[in-house]
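Fold these two proteins, one after the other.
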Amino acid sequence: MVADKLNLGSFIFDRSKFMATLFPLIDAVLVTALFMSRKTAVYGYLLNGLIVIYGTIFMAHFSIAEITTKSIPFPALLLKSTLPDIVIAWGDFLVGKALYDLYMKG
């Protein structure tokens, strides 16, 4: 829900912001719960990988769209893009892979 700027006090539903909230929520709650058991660690690993791939695609698309519409100069490109967020998401995937390998080998 996003506040409507024209009509104060009313809210509108924004699908892009909903998905941006839903994926981290699923990652934090459901994937963590799936990694708590050896039986469901495979599903946690799979879901974590899917969320990271979709998140990378969505964030890269958002970043490219914002950069092209606002014509951001090259030196500010790194700070204005979602590249740091994508790196954090892949770091989360690597932590999930380490947990998966620990469950399967240990």
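Now the second one:
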Amino acid sequence: MDHDQLFKDLLTTFFAEFLELFFPKMAAELDRPLIQADDTYSLALFDVPILSFQFQAIQLNRLNWRDFLKKPNPVASALMAKMKIEPEDRPRAKLECLRMMLTLKYDPARSGLISQFMDSYLKLTPAETIVYTEAAEVLSPSEKEIAMTFTNEWTEKGGRETGLRIVMRLLRKRFGELPEQITSRLNELPGDRLSELAEALLDFQTLNDAQVWLSNQTV
């Protein structure tokens, strides 16, 4: 992965928002029509060239991701993935990054860039994906659909066994111990059907809903 290019794409696309997030005073002076300004600066003394510059460092891993939750800014939703996150907060942090991105309602290209950034720098383990998916139950139906893309990616990348563990854990979490009829049927499902079930089960109200869904599947 070209990490430098990913950061460049993010800052090029959301440069104004980047300034608003970290340098609000500078952003207030920004000319939004983006009229081209001089790209050179020189300072000389008695015909002797002199150059002096100063910069501010932003050390993401020293910033707490929770401090940026209430900042409706696309750069924040992406860069939170690189900030200081306690191990137990990783699933929640990814979900909150996603929710922030959804509220901004950007076009698919910009939303895709933010999603790529989040997925690149806040990769969840299978166990964390289970927690993430359970937390996604509080989302609206449209938000759930997008949130579940991350679970589907795990079942694809992690293989069928990962998907099976996630689905069985989620079903047990909601409905208790599973009858043999359901566990046997789950063991027969291919990986793509497990991905579909991981998304569908968020709308199940009873264990019977899972049985009906499974009975409608052909192996």
